[in-house]
Amino acid sequence: MPELTILTPCFNRKPRMKKLLESLEQQTIFDFQWLIIDDGSTDGTKEWFDQLDKALYSFKIDYYYKKNGGKHTALNYSHQFIKGKYIVIVDSDDRLVDNAVETILTYWRKYESDSQIGGITFQRGELRNHRKFDDKIVGVKESTFSAMTNEGMSGDHCETFRTSLFRQRNFPVFRDEKFVAEAAMWYFITRNYHVIYVDDVVYLAEYLDGGLTKSGRSLRISNPRGSRWHARAFLNSDFNFRIRIKNSLLFNTYSHFIGENYFKAVSTTTNSRFILTINWLPSYGLYYIWKKKYGN
């Protein structure tokens, strides 16, 4: 069995998948499974994988097709097919540096016997120049997701987890919505564990027009229940007051987009209710600004 699963959820990214495959072929070691969950592509991705001679590659390739439901549903669906002890999610738009798998497994082998380590997080860099996204990670540091967030960690990273922990959590699925941001799930997966933060770029990202990351705020507003779930996670007492204030404003604003009144909205959480209350009226201002700007 491979030590690592590289999980790629995809939707209508056939040309980009070929580039990702090329980067996997360049890895310095091949002790990994490439697991692709196709979230209902209609651009010929399925036909391309069906015709791909997987026996020609030095690593295992597993492809599964599902009805379109959003990236988070593809991640949920993947649980039954993961073969590696550890998992890293690599989006279809992106690449790995040539020694990424070797670097990831080197660190996991070092910390494998430490049951308190639930994840190892590496840096992402820009595809064009490899410039890292976050300067808050320096050297190698053992911490927690919430502590690093409180210290100002921001931007996208390359999170890796023990598969046993990743399988324990499913993203929530909301009717008529197809997007849930991922950071809250990374918090829940490792909440009772420590995370090793490594200042090595192993993942190269390119944000394309139409991609989830670049769609930004409008995507979150179009999926308000999932966005409110994400904000609610950061109301937990693990996070500092500044973060809880910000996310209480987001929680309330997305509640307005859902169409819920104060009592209905606040009843969905037991965290930071006082902050939610004092931010309820100010959140109407943000709601109307976003409604005018994004037209939802």
UniProtKB/TrEMBL annotation:
<dbReference type="InterPro" id="IPR029044">
    <property type="entry name" value="Nucleotide-diphossugar_trans"/>
</dbReference>
<protein>
    <submittedName>
        <fullName>Glycosyltransferase</fullName>
    </submittedName>
</protein>
<dbReference type="Pfam" id="PF00535">
    <property type="entry name" value="Glycos_transf_2"/>
</dbReference>
<keyword id="KW-0808">Transferase</keyword>
<dbReference type="GO" id="GO:0016758">
    <property type="term" value="F:hexosyltransferase activity"/>
</dbReference>
<feature type="domain" description="Glycosyltransferase 2-like">
    <location>
        <begin position="5"/>
        <end position="167"/>
    </location>
</feature>
<dbReference type="InterPro" id="IPR001173">
    <property type="entry name" value="Glyco_trans_2-like"/>
</dbReference>
